Amino acid sequence: MTQQEVRLLQYFIENEGRVVPRGELLENVWELPPTVNTRAPDQFIRRLRKIFEPEPARPKYFKTVRDVGYQFVGDES
Questions:
Q1: What is the arrangement of strands in the sheet containing 69-72, beginning at the earlier edge strand?
Q2: Model's pTM, two decimal places?
Q3: Which of 12, 22, 25, 75 is the most exposed place for a label (fewest CB within 10 A)?
């Protein structure tokens, strides 16, 4: 994993269960203004899904909440 992937994963773990808006990720993980137009969060979440999801096309841990942001849901077992 890259350093940025680790930072994103750590942020999700610290905010487990909470829907995190893209702007918040930009501010707190990438240290960019929340209004910056970039697909970086989407691309990095896709990479985390490839690493951690049993079926990346059907995410169980890294969920997209349409028009709101992303939510990390840890393993329930």
A1: 19-21, 69-72, 62-65
A2: 0.91
A3: 75
